[in-house]
Amino acid sequence: MNKILLFALLFSQNIIFAQFSERSLSSENWQFRNPKQKNWFPAKIPGTVHLDLMNNKLIPDPFKDENEKKVQWVENEDWEYQTTFSVSSQELKKENIDLIFNGLDTFAEIYLNGKLLKKTDNMFRKWKVPVKNYLIKGDNLLQINFKSAVSTGKELAKAVPFTVPESPRSFVRKAQYQFGWDWGPRLVTAGIWKDIKIEYWNTAKIETLKIEQKNIADKKADLALHTSIVAGKAGRYNLILNGKENTISLKKGQNRIDIPFTIHNPKLWQPNGRGEPYLYDIQVSLLKEAKVLSEKNQKMGLRTVELIQEKDSNGKSFSFKVNGSPLYIKGTNWIPADSFSPRITKEKYQKLIKDTKDANMNMIRIWGGGIYEDDEFYKACDENGILVWQDFMFAGSFYPSDEEFLNNVKEEVKDQVNRLQNHPSIALWCGNNEIDEAIVNWGYQKQFRYSKNDSLQVWKDYKKLFHDVIPAALKENLTADKNIYWPSSPSIGWGHKESLTEGDSHYWGVWWGEQPFEIYNEKVGRFMSEYGFQGMPTLETAKSMFSGTPELRVENSTVKAHEKHSRGWDIINEYLKRDYKIPTDFVKYNYVSQLLQARGMQIAIEAHRRAKPYNMGTLYWQLNDCWPVVSWSSIDYLGNWKAFHYQAKRSFEPILISVAETDKNYDIYFISDLLKDLKFSLKIELIDFEGKKLWESRKSGDLKADASEKISSITKSQLVQFDTSKAVLKITSENDLKYEKLFFFNRPKDLKLSKPDITIRKISPVEIEVSADVLAKDVYLIGNTHFSDNFFDLLPGSSKRITLSKPLEKVEVMSLWEVMNN
Ligand code: BMA
Questions:
Q1: Are 147 and 174 in contact (CB under 8 A)?
Q2: CB 183 less than 6 A from any atom of ligand 1
Q3: β 96-101/41-43 pair status
Q4: Distance from the CA of 328 to the center of ligand 1, in angstroms?
Q5: In the prediction, which pLDDT does 738 show?
Q6: Residue 625 has pLDDT above 60, yes or no
């Protein structure tokens, strides 16, 4: 680098100030009102109208009691927001001044000093409004008026000659879950949901950076920087990429500059379980005559992702290769972490993603009925080695395909792809959630009496949006190395046998179909992207459903209102009857409903993993919640791990021993996700619930890297002389692979448990030791703290050390015996 440039860079802070500066307008004093009323109230930006109404005590908290009903009127109203912000004469001298709206929800009119500058119609787009000609020195008035999305949507729906399911939600480009879901309240909100900025700049500005990975080899990674630059003046400029200077020439207006570069001895970004998710910093500065005009920094990871679909004797594979090796995918589905997404903190994003890593996952699917997530979400995934399956935001309905709608979607794709594509975590872009399936299987055409033409139109619209427009927009905006597109998840509905032989599959025979959990052993597809079962949230979260003293009864109307699936309680009770019993006591009900969920999911995950490499991925439905609710989540709204999250962690261990029952045998499988061949040496013991060893056998052998193998079979006749309802199979791995598996022969309700005496010894304020005299099944440690393990089985005479995230006066404890013997 020459001396002048170095000098310029050293002083870049000041010079940037001179050439480019930006300021957030979110911290100005904002006000809002219903235009039917005179009074203005203080508002918080970014935010939503519901939060502002709550903060001003104009509506009750919809998450509490049965308040959801009381706030439904909000969605039918229009809302106005305003602020003033001041601009100095210095600032006014800048050649270009833009207002940047990172997110407006949804139908807004933007006025500056009384002049209408823009109308918006898509929550997922970023709006840039040049304002130099409309600003004045001193105070400027910015007003943003929102039209009710529900009434606007109803108007838009009139253009379609047939009834669209769940109209008007699919007519508005707005987070679909706000309209209510089977785990979420209906809270159709409005407002300035992302930051607003004012940008001042001279001469030229870097708009986007895209980094393409051309070739990654051991010694060298060949990359290309693609940047778009807007210039007010044509001429020669300098672009510095990671300290290396390039001379470029720009024309007035929009420019695209491509610069090849290399990284020597590259370190790869590895998914969780495969090594470090190494990240590089890319720094780009644009200069003219030694003045820094604009700078951008970008984190990036070097990795390749391939989606492999090869025909085989069973159908067609569906698997991911990351950095050249097949990767068995273990993970979950993500929904927005709050009904009011602007209040999700960075810490909450970081914690939930860390929780996926801690549970041995390597992928998360952002489900299409929510939002394109906050930058912090992707940052956390990049840092924790969690791959992202990114749906576009369309879910479970029919969508229009008129030109205006399609153009709107094209711009949405462009904005989101430009924002997100450099994240190494993003593995795949998927058109939608369950729309192909909805059209083919859900019977809407019959329900709404479609004509043949209407039905044809729906399919034509679908094809246009998800097979033409979105993939074309993706291709246009994405660098070639990242272009993996999959039109719909699932590709084939669960009623069709092909859903288990090709593509990705959502299996809902359990829960929706009320089939027994054991059916999971048969219904294994090539890649299971959804399956799930509900469980109650933890006690702390259940209590948070009440504004006053909690009245914890399952029949309580507040508790009932926090289950959004129309048959939810009946389905849970039906499955409880099959495997446990239905306790009347709330705490026991809460506990056992969580056990039920964890049990069902353990059966599913183990069946999927045993079937490797036929099956190459398992993403359960769902990681998290958007409010306190009974749902399929493994972590509840307050961030507490339900029994299922502890189980998910166990079931996703890189080494898993799994026992599958057949007519005559108990087959023992050894599953490894490790990339090296292994030697195993197993001790297999049958132990009764009092601790007596009844039978023993040993098995040793080799296991190939990254494989699942049946390594041993116990015939039922071998165990016939024992009462297996009083015994557990304990399988211990004896060499360096420390691993233990307990297998019970009966459903929980058929186990003959004895009353355990569970002792808790305090080791330190944040560590306890739990032990039991006889088998303690599903030990539940109760208290508002995070236990490092919970809902685990303790063998007779064994003990377990547990750490607490914060000290507790006293740890209460319960086990399955108390539920089954009461
Ligand atoms: C899946 C999801 C969601 C839904 C869940 C449980 O299919 O895509 O739409 O919440 O089922 O019913």
A1: no
A2: yes
A3: unpaired
A4: 23
A5: 77
A6: yes
Close Cβ partners of 755 (under 8 Å, ≥ 6 residues apart):
774, 817, 821
Which ligand 1 atom sits closest to the C-alpha of 532?
6
Torsions phi, psi for 499 (to 5 deg): -65, -20
Residue 207 annotated as catalytic: no
Q: Does the beta carbon of 621 sit less than 6 angstroms from any atom of ligand 1? A: yes
Please indicate whether residue 182, judged by its CB atom, sits closer than 6 Å to ligand 1: yes
Question: What is d(CA 802, CA 747) in angstroms, rounded to the nearest whole number?
Answer: 27
434 is catalytic: yes
- In order of 342, 469, 648, the CA distances from 103 in angstroms are 10, 23, 35
- Closest to 532 measured CA to CA, from 371, 452, 648: 648
Q: Are 508 and 490 in contact (CB under 8 A)?
A: no
Q: Which of 68, 434, 502, 563 is catalytic?
A: 434
The closest-lying atom of ligand 1 relative to the alpha carbon of residue 512 is: 12
* Backbone CA torsion sign across 789, 791, 793, 799: positive
pLDDT of residue 15: 39
| pLDDT, tens digit (0-9, with 9 covering 90-100), for 450-494 | 999 999 999 999 999 999 999 999 999 999 899 999 999 999 988
pLDDT in tens, 147-205: 999 999 999 999 998 999 989 999 999 999 999 999 999 999 999 999 999 999 999 99
Pairwise CA distance, residues 336 & 334, whole Å: 7
CA of 434 from ligand 1 middle (Å) equals 8
Q: What is the pTM of this model?
A: 0.96
* CA dihedral angle for residue 503, residue 509, residue 512, residue 516, rounded to 10 degrees: -150
3-class secondary-structure state, position 271: coil
pLDDT of 16 higher than 70: no
- Contact criterion met (CB below 8 Å) for 414 and 477: yes
437 C-alpha vs ligand 1 centroid, how far in Å?
12
- Per DSSP, the three-state class of 586 is helix
Element (H, E) at 639: none
Query: What angle, rounded to 10 degrees, do the helices at 568-579 and 586-610 form?
Result: 80
Q: What is the mean pLDDT of residues 785-791?
A: 97
Atom of ligand 1 nearest to the CA of 565: 12
State whether the beta carbon of 625 lies less than 6 angstroms from ligand 1. Answer: no
Query: In a mutational test of the pocket of ligand 1, which residue from 530, 531, 633 has the highest number of ligand atoms less than 8 Å from its CB?
Result: 530
Q: What is the pLDDT of residue 350?
A: 98
**Contact of 730 with 696, CB cutoff 8 Å:** no
Give the model's confidence band at 734: pLDDT under 50 very low, under 70 low, under 90 confident, else very high: confident
Question: Average pLDDT of the chain?
Answer: 95
433 lines ligand 1 (CB under 6 A): yes
Closest residue by CA, ligand 1 atom 4:
182
Contact 262/219 with Cβ under 8 angstroms? no
Residue among 437, 621, 627, 634 whose CB has most ligand 1 atoms within 8 A, to mutate: 621
Does ligand 1 come within 6 angstroms of the Cβ of 494?
Answer: no
Query: The tokens 């700049």 sit on which residue?
Result: 201
Pocket of ligand 1 contains residue 394 by CB under 6 Å: no
What's the CA-to-centroid distance between 490 and ligand 1, angstroms? 11
Query: What's residue 61's pLDDT?
Result: 98
d(CA 358, CA 653): 10
Write out pLDDT tens, residues 742-782. 999 999 999 999 999 999 999 999 999 999 999 999 999 99
DSSP type of residue 375:
H
Mean pLDDT on 292-306:
96
